[in-house]
Amino acid sequence: MLRDIFYIFRREFYTVFRDYAVITFFVFLTLGYPLVYTYVYSCEVVREVPVAVIDNARTPLSREFLSMWDATPLVDIVAHCRDLEEAKELMNRKAVYGILEIPADFSKDINRGIQAHVSLFCNMGALLNYKALAQAASDVSLAMGKQIQVQGMDYASRIQESIKASPVTVSEVKLFNPQGGFASFIMPAVLILVIQQSLLLGVGTIAGTARDRNRYGRMIPANRHYRRPWCIVTGKACLYLLVYFVMAYWVLFIVPRMFNLTQIAGKAELMLFLFPFLLACTFFAISGSFLSKEREQPFLLFVFTSVPLMFISGISWPREGIPSYWITFSKIFPSTHGIDGFVKMNNMGATLRDVLPEYVALWILATVYFVLACVLYGFQLRKR
Amino acid sequence: MNSINGLPALMKREFRRLADRKIYWFMMILAPAFCFVFFADLLKQGLPVKLPIAVVDEDNTALSRQLSRSLDAIAQTEVVSRTADFSEARKAMQRGEIYGIFHIPRDFRQEVSAAGQPVISFYTNDTYLLPASLVYKDMRLQAVLANGAVQQTLLLARGQGGPQLQARLMPVSVDTHPLNNPWISYAIYLASVLMPAFVFMFAMFTATYGIGQEMKERTADEWLRLANGSVSVALLGKLLPQTAIFLVTGLLYLSVLYGYMAFPLNSGFFPMFLAMVLLVLAAQGFAVFVTGATRRNRLALSACALWGVLSFAVSGFTFPATSMPSLIQVLCYLFPVRHYYLLYVDQALNGVPLYFSWQPYVMLALFAVLPVLVLSRLKTDLSENRYLP
Prior knowledge:
The complex is a heterodimer. By secondary structure, chain A is an alpha/beta fold. Chain A is built from 15 helices and five strands. A four-stranded mixed beta sheet of chain A has the order 2-1-3-4, sandwiched between helices. Chain B is about 65% helix and about 10% strand. At the A-B interface, helix 2, strand 4, helix 6, helix 7 and strand 5 of A face helix 2, helix 4, strand 4, helix 6 and helix 7 of B.
């Protein structure tokens, strides 16, 4: 029996490393794709969004508001316009993504003790641009408001003034992703998905190629070593796992370090968590490979699934907003639990005990998909 | 001239090939329809509501309780736990149960009265960027309001109430106008690009795979013969039936987006219809181009897969392309979905006059005519039934 497993393992080794298509998925895709993807988002945050301003007041106070806004890292004033029409023209040409208009009686209102309003118009094509502009404007209006309040008090000491203007100090802390970076947020999920999907594509290619080459479209060679389904699955899985121990280290440990992404999990503990994830992915890929009827089909079947999987994992879209049946559906994919656990440990410093539900789920999935793969190979054997 | 006469026969042949195999049904109808239904259903709320947060109230006075109650009253957040223990809340956050913590310190009420300037802190878990930014907004608003409430008490005590109170509390206010998406709905920009990006991907796959199959099954020479040796007629005969089916799929997503989900369509139907048609043609043009350029079906499919998947990132609908590294800012123009996204922003969302958008339309059309670069090469490969695994 052990000899069968070893024979299948060795044969699978040659299959994998003699086929460029499989190497592409197992090695080049896992090596390169995370780099490209992280590079795309490597700027992490939106900065210096170009805007146009219309200053109808033309007073020192209005100029101060604009220069404070311009001084924030989020905003870059590239044009001063005479009226809204001119600014809208710039917006249509995509020279600017926002317009700030200061009304003529801006300073007059403030000095008379009436609330002054400035108008901010945002192009909603990219929500992050809108968020940057709105937040910067609100920051500036609060800061300026405080100044005005202090000036309005013509008695009392400086300290007393500032306390009156803001009796409560507010401190805001972004945990686990201090700059609110986009790569730090999306990459952990992408990295986990790369592992599952590349395995699915690679093993699918192996299965499809075997069917292409066999005259009767069978996946198992006529060979006395291929007798027991569980030996076939184990032999194949051992090789894939061996390759993916190396690749997963690259994807999940080295790539994040190269791009300075958050990594606060204990290495050993994280590896302990990832082991059943790799097992589950491997057996999931072997089971899934039965869908691939020929060499080219894995692309057609599996590539598009990455995007829905990303969304139901609870990263791109909060779990609270996902209908419960999709949540249930998502549980059958290793990536869902893998992303959940990996993000909690790697980015939020959770311990293995904290992610126990995910850990257990991955072991269950590994078992289920192992059994499923054996059953499917059993059918194949019976056909022979 | 007489080669074009073979076109009806070629198209009939292609329709039969498409109908014959399940994989085509999967790529052209089943999988796109699944994606449309999936995302339409997932994003139907537009904005997630009732995001869980925790309030750590170490003060536990009427004032602090009022603060946490009004935080709960905001639609987007839901206070799921009130505790006096910060580390308990922190652990809940690490388990992913809450997205934010609103912390009111011990002796808050007392410090306020004694002008001790107590600190209200709020924490967001930015590992989950979207919910974090939503609860951030609410908690920040609440903190500002807390300031206002305290000030209001102080001002009223000095007899400075009335119409000037508002101006006193907030002398400058910003009126934000999120143009054409006043609900700040995430669904609008996500679904509007996700759905066409799937159509783009499957149209590429179908074209590439279809041509590859001819060579693999050694029927390419017969296919070419039916077109009287004209490779462009052969390609037309193969691709037009696929175009027709994908246009139906495209109309399906247009009606889901702008009919069923009623997203803004401010330039009317035609500009987005044109964008959809050009996107399908661009997908097919790109597919034929890589098929001819790589001469190997597997590599061509790899290129299509890479283009399809990267489209989701570089089109810039989640993270603006203008904030990407400058190399990517240039390279993103090689992705048709990027141009489609620009058209969607201009035409569907903002309804700007058509002449501002001529560039993306032209770019998409350019992708559609890419095959002319590889026609002669493709002809050799087809007549030789050249299949490389």
